[in-house]
Amino acid sequence: MPVAIVTGASRGLGRALAEGLADRGWSLVVDARDGDALDAAVRPLVARTIVRALPGDVTDADHRAELVRAALDVGGLDAVVNNASLLGPSPQPALASYSLDDLRRVYEVNVFAPLALVQLALPSLRAGGRVVNITSDAAVEGYEGWGGYGSSKAALEQWTNVLAAERPDLRVYRVDPGDLRTQMHQDAFPGEDISDRPLPEVAVPGLVRVLEGDLPSGRYQAQTLEEVLV
């Protein structure tokens, strides 16, 4: 039974992916900052698979170590999915007025914490293990107001790209889930109606394919599973 760590699994894409993997027989180690929301998310999964739910913040070193230990206790580690992200201030400010303290926090969550978790997990990943980092089109497009979040995702993408070159024994992916109807997306557009966006479940089949298939390391769009060369 394969084992995956999925961060940010209490809602949105992380929750949908955890549900999809549970249905496919994966054992899961999941986290989120909100313990009550995480408990509600995993409660339906415990009858389907082994789940370890660990409330905490991915920027906390002790919490990251706990995630890896839990995976090894479950039976090993086959995949790390860095899904947890921080949008930053809402509404999002222009770069000219972006608080550097806020920007540092965005980078801590979106860039440094995922790398720290991967560094910790690498010695424990089984042969052919997967690293999946959830990115965004804001990493490659110059959208007004997305300078903080977008630049953090660009940094995430580049270290993912380099890791893929350094570790050809692993499969290392940057996956853009596309526009989704999530709380983070709503926070990015306060007061706007985002009901036309699809639910997170539409991105799950693409993510399952990178986790279970034989696709080469690279950047993919989950909703179409189109490889994007950037």
Entry keywords:
single chain; alpha/beta; Rossmann fold
Describe this structure in words.
- With 230 residues, the chain is an alpha/beta fold.
- It has one domain: NAD(P)-binding Rossmann-like Domain (Rossmann fold, 3-Layer(aba) Sandwich).
- It is 40% helix and 19% strand.
- The chain contains 7 helices and 8 strands, in the order E-H-E-H-E-H-E-H-E-H-E-H-H-E-E.
- The chain has an 8-stranded mixed sheet with strand order 3-2-1-4-5-6-7-8, sandwiched between helices.
- The termini are far apart.
- The mean pLDDT is 93.
Q: Strands, helices and their partners?
A:
Elements: E1 3-6, H1 12-23, E2 27-32, H2 35-42, E3 51-55, H3 61-74, E4 77-82, H4 100-121, E5 125-134, H5 147-166, E6 171-176, H6 183-188, H7 204-212, E7 218-221, E8 226-227
Parallel strand pairs: 1-2, 1-4, 2-3, 4-5, 5-6, 6-7
Antiparallel strand pairs: 7-8
What is the percent of helical residues? 25-40%
Low-confidence stretches: none
How many helices? 7
* CA-based gyration radius: 16 Å
Largest sheet: 8 strands, mixed
CATH superfamily: NAD(P)-binding Rossmann-like Domain
Strand order of the largest sheet: 3-2-1-4-5-6-7-8
Find the CATH topology: Rossmann fold
Percentage of β-strand residues: 15-25%
Overall mean pLDDT: 93
CATH architecture: 3-Layer(aba) Sandwich
